[in-house]
Amino acid sequence: MFFHIVLERNMQLHPRHFGRNLRENLVSKLMKDVEGTCSGRHGFVVAITGIENVGKGLIRDGTGFVTFPVKYQCVVFRPFKGEVLEAVVTMVNKMGFFAEAGPVQIFVSNHLIPDDMEFQSGDMPNYTTSDGSVKIQKDSEVRLKIIGTRVDATEIFCIGTIKDDFLGVINDPTTA
Amino acid sequence: MSIEPFNRLVKLAARAFYDDVTTKGDNQPKTGRGDNRGIAVVVLDALTRRQWVREEDLAKELKLHSKQLRRTLRLFEEEKLVTRDHRRETAKGAKIYSAAVAATVDVQHGGKEGEEKIKLHTHSYCCLDYAQIYDVVRYRLHRMKKKLKDELEDKNTVQEYVCPNCGKRYNALDALRLVSLEDEYFHCERCNGELVAESDKLVAQDVGDGDDNARRRRREKLKDMLQKMEVQLKPLMEQLSRVKDLPVPEFGSLQAWEARASAAGRAINGDSGSNDLSRSSQGYGGTPMPFLGETKLLGPAWQVEVAFSGLDGKEEDAKSESAGTSLKVLPPWMIKQGMNLTKEQRGEVKQESKTDGTSAQPDFSDDKKSTIGTDDKKNLQDEYLKAYYAALYKKQQELEEAAKKQEELSDIPLSSSHSDPSKRQVGMKVKRDDDEGDDDIDWEEAPLAGNTTESYKVNDLNVEAEASGDDEDDVDWEEG
């Protein structure tokens, strides 16, 4: 799920950036630092949408760096148990398949794949129904439901299922 | 603080979960004789009638080998049903415990042997932990249901993997770390062995895995199982909800309990204590009972002695011996009174054990009635008793055989019915020697004692019916 929230961060800025463009430099450094990171609490920071305010800078003794407390608005993505996501399959193996929904990795184990789909090994390992009409392989797009998440301080990993109504392949690259 | 609902809970749980548990060393072959299924239930039942109890004593009372008992108790400790305490103590320490035991109500107990030993021994004590039992049972039910439901729905389960080499377990959330570059399997982080998906399925997966029929059958089986569980564990769940808002009986640690028990003998079973008080004023008069305040003067030591003979006299031969020894211990000037007490106490013990099983009230009232009734008929009964006695004795011996078979089902009702007749006999003989006047009391016990097996012999059928009714209840439940 996506959230638009306000976060705060203490930015350290090198003295060489002081000048007319101090603020722009601060924002670009913030984006570089923050976008794409993951915190267990808020999820993945997808994009910074604006700066709320920049507090008073504090000059560090000895280094000349200045610390600014910056409040910024951002879009975060946090997967939840029970959430339905669309994801792209990245790897298929005997144990199931891995898929990515943006920054999140999701594993679907083979017992959470419908029983009528069987693993076919080979050059392009895939899961196929007995009549061959549905095939899950690398780069397939699937809709899946998250049934478990592991949230570490800097990492989120999910397991999902496609063994439910309206879940499964939504776009097969080989037929498209 | 009512302990009764909790005891019932324990009994139900014991029958539900520990009925066919065998506690056995792995090295022992499974022979018919060594099959100790059901022992767990017996032990738990016995514990519901006690508070803190020394394990040796419990073993003796249950006629179990102490090793076997300890094994069972260890199981319960692991299951968090009992708390245990081990301590090295001298004879003096054992006495503290014995005194505490003598002071409490529902422990019909002989704390004899340990007192004579002067050596330092490690003694183990055990006690039910009701608060924890409540939680454990609830948790167990919850897990059972969850497991079945998950399997039924087959979607909210996190697949588990186990390394066949080192036994390390992973689940699907670890998948990212486990995937290997060389092949399509997961590999153990520790030993790089190939992980296998663990199938903790309750219903064995048929060979035709993808087969629709097989799957449907499996689902049906699961559904069936879930339903059966609901039905069979209903009494347990009802008891859980009944117990939910009741204050949990707490005995505290062994030391705390001992201190409390010996300080205030009847504090623990306040309600039944008051019962006893009222009864004693009506029926028994000044009859000493272990938990009454007056009796304290007489000292717990010989009371314990008496209880011992009462308890262990289950076998005829053993009984007469023990009774003899207990008599010897008494000083001559006390014998008359002592005899009286023995009988009273015996009666008390038996009632105690019966009331444990059911609600306390009816039994008590019946008891009162019979006591009063006996006063009137005393003379008649004296005669009756003598003539009757010989016949009864014969009967009892026959009964004993029959009763032995029942022993597995219910230890206490049986053992009390057993011990009392036999003890009564010995008591009778001695009593006739010194005092005929005691007969009424004795007689009163006789009916109760013989009752469990043969009700028609006795005139107070009420007690009988209740006791046996309770038994049937248990059995019934087990089958259901």
UniProtKB/TrEMBL annotation, chain A:
One GO cellular component term: P-body
Taxonomic superkingdom: Eukaryota
CDD domains: RNAP_II_Rpb7_N, S1_RNAPII_Rpb7
Pfam families on file: S1, SHS2_Rpb7-N
Molecular functions (GO terms): single-stranded DNA binding; single-stranded RNA binding; translation initiation factor binding
Keyword Nucleus: yes
BP GO annotations: nuclear-transcribed mRNA catabolic process; positive regulation of nuclear-transcribed mRNA poly(A) tail shortening; positive regulation of translational initiation; transcription initiation at RNA polymerase II promoter
Keywords for this protein: DNA-directed RNA polymerase, Nucleus, Transcription
Function: DNA-dependent RNA polymerase which catalyzes the transcription of DNA into RNA using the four ribonucleoside triphosphates as substrates.
Protein name: DNA-directed RNA polymerase subunit
Natural source organism: Theobroma cacao
From TrEMBL, chain B:
Spans through the membrane: none
Any one GO biological process: transcription initiation at RNA polymerase II promoter
Gene3D superfamilies attached to this UniProt entry: Zinc/RING finger domain, C3HC4 (zinc finger)
Domain of life: Eukaryota
Biased segments, Polar residues type: 271-282
Comp. bias (Basic and acidic residues): 343-355, 365-377
Region (Disordered): 266-288, 340-377, 400-480
Ranges for domain HTH TFE/IIEalpha-type: 6-138
PROSITE patterns: HTH_TFE_IIE (PS51344)
Key words of the record: Transcription, Transcription regulation
InterPro entries assigned to the protein according to its UniProt record, in alphabetical order: TFE, TFIIE/TFIIEa_HTH, TFIIE_asu, TFIIEa/SarR/Rpc3_HTH_dom, WH_DNA-bd_sf, Znf_RING/FYVE/PHD
Pfam families linked: TFIIE_alpha
Bias-annotated ranges (Acidic residues): 435-445, 467-480
This protein's GO CC annotations: transcription factor TFIIE complex
Family that this chain belongs to: Belongs to the TFIIE alpha subunit family.
Protein name: General transcription factor IIE subunit 1 isoform 2
Organism placement in taxonomy: Eukaryota, Viridiplantae, Streptophyta, Embryophyta, Tracheophyta
